[in-house]
Amino acid sequence: MLSENTISIIKTITPLVAANAETITRRFYQIMFEGDPQVKTFFNMAHQESGQQPKALAEAVCAYFANIENLGVLGPTVELIAQKHCSLNIQPEHYPIVGKYLLIAIKDVMGDAATDEIINAVAEAYEFLANVCINRETEIYQQHRAMTGGWLGYRKFIVWRKEEESQEITSFYLQPKDSQPLPNFKPGQYITIQVDDPNLSSTPRNYSLSDSPNQDYFRISVKKELGKTPNAPNGMISSYLHDEVQVGGTLSVGAPCGEFTLDPAKLNDQPVVFLAGGVGITPLLSMAKTLVDQAVLAPIYFIHASRNSAVHAFDNEVCKMISDKDFVNTLFVYDDPLAADLEDGKCDSVGYVTADVLRDKTPYQSANFYVCGPTEFMHQMLTILDELDVEPARIHYEFFGPKQDFKTLASA
Ligand code: FAD
Question: Is the CB of 18 under 6 A from ligand 1?
């Protein structure tokens, strides 16, 4: 347990740390990457460029300090962090590196205000949280080792099928090179991909499993990320997968991880609404297919927002999933339809997914919502769900990047 003195000091410094949190975390990453560059392999440098990673860490530090007397509320965040760490194969010996640079960054930014007493208290609080994470990560690694078909670290997989799903998204069907069984995964989980190119192999990325479990392959579906400004490079790993990885190619794969999952047994026939934006469909498709495969009786509402039919992935697969199933409802929403889309009736609704759409088309007062998509889409959906008074306990969501705070996002 944390000492009373440490709790009291953390409570006192929380407002000051909160006011400087992003300056501290930006400094932290800068000095850590300079001092121990080998840890860069655990971080996506594009998220450093965009500032998302320092922001996410600042929010996590503030949440920890603000809840120092009520750590139970941090349970879901600890689980998210532990799952992410296990996906990247982070080990206990990495924690002291982070702790060291965090304390230096706090000293650098807070100057004389960071007395020895304060630094000692922050060190104790950091070590306490690190041990909570390490214990949970040890459990997850043990589960991976014990599971039929499970593994630790990276395992070689062969691409046995590559399928274009839209102009932007391509699926890769992966089978283990050792021909041994695959572990079962929970729908919604992701795997980690490391490409076998010496220039890129230290840069792993997470990809959600887009098909239902119990197949003899893992399927990931990857959007090719293009540079958003003329000088910005295209996404490193997604471009490599699209352009360089062909059928017969090899990828190194980390075991399924992630806490954004849906357990069909726990639904109690309550309705489920899936809100997918673009490539955010991947974990939600796996969840929906699992519910349909298991003939779960919960009414399903599958809403997918895309720009138009050219970039709309999995429309056929979703239509096939729902055929003859009156308990599954779908809605395809295009905000920039092609002329042919309007003529052919390719979408059910033009515009964005609005509060009125959810009011009219979903049982929002009782449903559980599963949301995944680009940041702007997530922002809109979480704001709308807040407006509709959907309690946070019924809202489940995943970011394809560093986790962002729901309240910050909803009020942005
Ligand atoms: P990066 O190289 O990481 O670049 C990302 C963006 O940053 C690009 O737009 C790029 O132009 C920009 N950028 C990079 N460097 C610079 C710079 N110097 N200046 C300006 N801009 C820059 N993705 C999927 O497609 N499908 C999935 O199912 C999926 N599931 C995911 C699940 C989880 C849990 C997570 C965390 C992520 C998931 N992702 C998924 C996202 C995926 O992990 C990658 O982040 C994504 O493919 C982009 O990686 P990249 O290497 O191609 O792009």
Answer: no
Q: Are residues 201 and 252 in the same domain?
A: yes
- From 81, 191, 225, 231, give the residue whose CB has the most ligand 1 atoms within 8 Å, as the site to mutate: 225
Q: Is 79 a catalytic residue?
A: no
Check whether residue 48 and residue 124 sit in a common domain.
yes
What is the average pLDDT score of the chain? 93
Determine whether 406 is exposed, middle or buried from the number of CB atoms within 10 Å of its CB (0-12, 13-18, 19+): middle
256 Cβ inside 6 Å of ligand 1: no
Q: Report the phi/psi class of residue 249: left, alpha or beta, with left for phi > 0 and alpha for psi in -120 to 50.
A: beta
Taking the CB of residue 190, how many other CB atoms lie within 10 A of it?
26
State the burial class of residue 1 (Cβ atoms within 10 Å of its Cβ: 0-12, 13-18, 19+).
exposed
Domain count, the chain: 3
**Range 100-107 average pLDDT:** 96
List the CATH number of the domain containing 246.
2.40.30.10
Active site annotation includes 95: yes
Options 95, 173, 240, 370, the catalytic residue? 95
Residue owning the nearest CA to atom 41 of ligand 1: 400
Q: Which of 96, 128, 146 is the last residue of a domain?
A: 146
Mutate to test the pocket of ligand 1, among 206, 251, 304 (most ligand atoms within 8 A of CB): 206
Residue 373: exposure state from Cβ atoms within 10 A (0-12, 13-18, ≥19): buried
Over its C-alpha atoms, the chain yields an Rg (Å, rounded) of: 22
135, 179: one domain: no
Q: What is the CATH classification number for the domain harbouring 131?
A: 1.10.490.10
The candidate with the shortest Cα–Cα distance to 54, out of 13, 15, 20, is 20
Closest CA to 195 of 147, 245, 229, 120: 245
pTM over 0.90: yes
352, pLDDT greater than 70: yes
Find the mean pLDDT for residues 47-53: 88
152 CA distance to ligand 1 centroid (A)? 24
Cβ of 170 closer than 6 Å to ligand 1, yes or no, is no
Task: Take atom 27 of ligand 1 and give the residue whose Cα is closest.
Answer: 207
Q: By residue range, what is the domain housing residue 283?
A: 264-410
The answer to whether residue 411 scores a pLDDT higher than 50 is no
